[in-house]
């Protein structure tokens, strides 16, 4: 039997990084997906085919008669650790020891703040669990996805695996989530083209937090309060225009606080200011930062903002909220 499952990327609208410190955050699943096909193997081996992962630095040297591969295969194995841990956890949960092959294709840029790590973990867990006949709820799958991120990254709030498993628009705090009323979000994502590994950025913020708690604690507290304010706005009976304008203002404040944490870059700031100048109501980093993506809220100005992001050297992506999280696409004999 073969199972094909998929799970979506996300944007964190408010509260990345502070969510790791137990503060709330707001995120939405978006319509870019990672697809994982899983099948059993009878030789007891785990085989992973990752079609979208580029490991930099493939080095070969030649002499007349020989070829030497000098690539760091340790690095290649490390890149697959989210998938490996996801498979291991499901096998453990099912109490089974069997060979499995998974094949991954993805629409999500890697290390770009759009939750590719969570999407690959959730789609793998979903596909392998179904393959083994293990009945898991979406919440249980989200918890296993969180475990995978904790094992690989050392720290994770769990918001990304939760939104990838559940889908839609959510408010998240310390492992619990609530669905927010669905709203059309006229957003444009801008990709800098470079990546920022979440593990390193979260560790960098932790060092700054421990070095200067007197400065960092109030910043994290402010981020938490800002997210509460954003939730109140999203759920309020307010005129739509007024609501978006105020949310935009909160995005700009959130971006400034993220800059103070040290996770912005020159390119991210350039894209953020280009979007604001082109008429976005607000623009900020999304995800871990250090490269990766920003997003802008731009009702009626999405194409102007997309052009401004391109001119500033980024790649714009106009995306929609995905109501669906983990999806089993097909089960084949
Ligand atoms: N298509 C994929 N196949 C295999 N592993 C992937 C895939 N997409 C992401 N990953 C894993 O997730 C890592 C990136 O995760 P992370 O640093 O958290 O950034 P983000 O989640 O923002 O994309 C990659 O280095 C890789 O280990
Ligand atoms: C920085 C953080 O808040 C979000 C990271 O998201 P991403 O892996 O950059 O997509 C970390 C977390 O919530 O675990
Ligand atoms: Mg990630």
From TrEMBL:
Gene3D superfamilies: 3.30.230.10, GHMP kinase, C-terminal domain. Its cofactor is Mg(2+). The active site is at 160 (proton acceptor). One of its GO terms (molecular function) is mevalonate kinase activity. InterPro entries: GHMP_kinase_C_dom (IPR013750), GHMP_kinase_C_sf (IPR036554), GHMP_kinase_N_dom (IPR006204), GHMP_knse_ATP-bd_CS (IPR006203), Mev_gal_kin (IPR006205), Mevalonate_kinase_arc (IPR022937), Ribosomal_Su5_D2-typ_SF (IPR020568), Ribsml_uS5_D2-typ_fold_subgr (IPR014721). Its main location: cytoplasm. Its EC number is 2.7.1.36. Keywords: ATP-binding, Cytoplasm, Isoprene biosynthesis, Kinase, Lipid biosynthesis, Lipid metabolism, Magnesium, Nucleotide-binding, Transferase. ATP binds at residues 109-119. It catalyses: (R)-mevalonate + ATP = (R)-5-phosphomevalonate + ADP + H(+). Residues 242-309 form the GHMP kinase C-terminal domain. Pathway: Isoprenoid biosynthesis; isopentenyl diphosphate biosynthesis via mevalonate pathway; isopentenyl diphosphate from (R)-mevalonate: step 1/3. It is an enzyme of class 2 (transferase). One of its GO terms (cellular component) is cytosol. It is found in: Cytoplasm. Residues 82-168 form the GHMP kinase N-terminal domain. GO terms for biological process: isopentenyl diphosphate biosynthetic process, mevalonate pathway. PANTHER family: MEVALONATE KINASE. Catalyzes the phosphorylation of (R)-mevalonate (MVA) to (R)-mevalonate 5-phosphate (MVAP). Functions in the mevalonate (MVA) pathway leading to isopentenyl diphosphate (IPP), a key precursor for the biosynthesis of isoprenoid compounds such as archaeal membrane lipids. Homodimer. Belongs to the GHMP kinase family. Mevalonate kinase subfamily. This is Mevalonate kinase. The lineage of its organism: Archaea, Methanobacteriati, Methanobacteriota, Thermococci, Thermococcales. The gene is mvk.
């Amino acid at each position: 039997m073969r199972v094909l499952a998929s799970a979506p990327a996300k944007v964190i609208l408010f509260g990345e990084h502070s969510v790791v410190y137990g503060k709330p955050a707001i995120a939405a699943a978006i319509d870019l997906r990672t697809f994982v096909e899983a099948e059993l193997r009878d030789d007891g081996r785990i085989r992973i085919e990752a079609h979208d992962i580029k490991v930099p630095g493939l080095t070969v040297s030649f002499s007349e008669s020989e070829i030497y591969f000098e690539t760091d295969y340790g690095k290649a194995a490390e890149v697959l650790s989210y998938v490996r841990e996801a498979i291991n956890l499901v096998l453990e949960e099912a109490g089974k020891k069997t060979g499995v092959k998974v094949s991954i294709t993805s629409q999500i840029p890697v290390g770009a703040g759009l939750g590719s790590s969570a999407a690959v973990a959730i789609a793998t867990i979903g596909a392998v669990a179904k393959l083994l006949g293990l009945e898991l709820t979406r919440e249980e799958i989200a918890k296993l996805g969180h475990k995978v991120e904790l094992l690989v990254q050392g720290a994770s709030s769990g918001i990304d695996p939760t939104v990838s498993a559940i889908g839609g628009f959510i408010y998240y705090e310390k492992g619990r989530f609530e669905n927010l009323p669905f709203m059309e979000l006229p957003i444009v994502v801008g990709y800098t083209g470079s990546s920022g590994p979440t593990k390193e950025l979260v560790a960098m913020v932790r060092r700054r937090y421990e070095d200067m708690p007197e400065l960092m604690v109030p910043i994290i507290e402010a981020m938490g309060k800002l997210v509460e304010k954003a939730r109140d706005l999203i759920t309020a009976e307010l005129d739509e225009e007024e609501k978006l304008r105020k949310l935009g203002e909160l995005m700009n404040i959130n971006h400034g606080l993220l800059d103070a944490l040290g996770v912005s870059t020159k390119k991210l700031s350039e894209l953020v200011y280009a979007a604001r100048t082109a008429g976005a109501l607000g623009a900020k980093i999304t995800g871990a930062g250090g490269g990766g993506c920003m997003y802008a809220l731009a009702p009626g100005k999405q194409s102007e903002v997309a052009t401004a992001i391109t001119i500033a050297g980024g790649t714009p992506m106009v995306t929609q909220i995905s109501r669906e999280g983990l999806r089993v696409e097909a089960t084949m004999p």
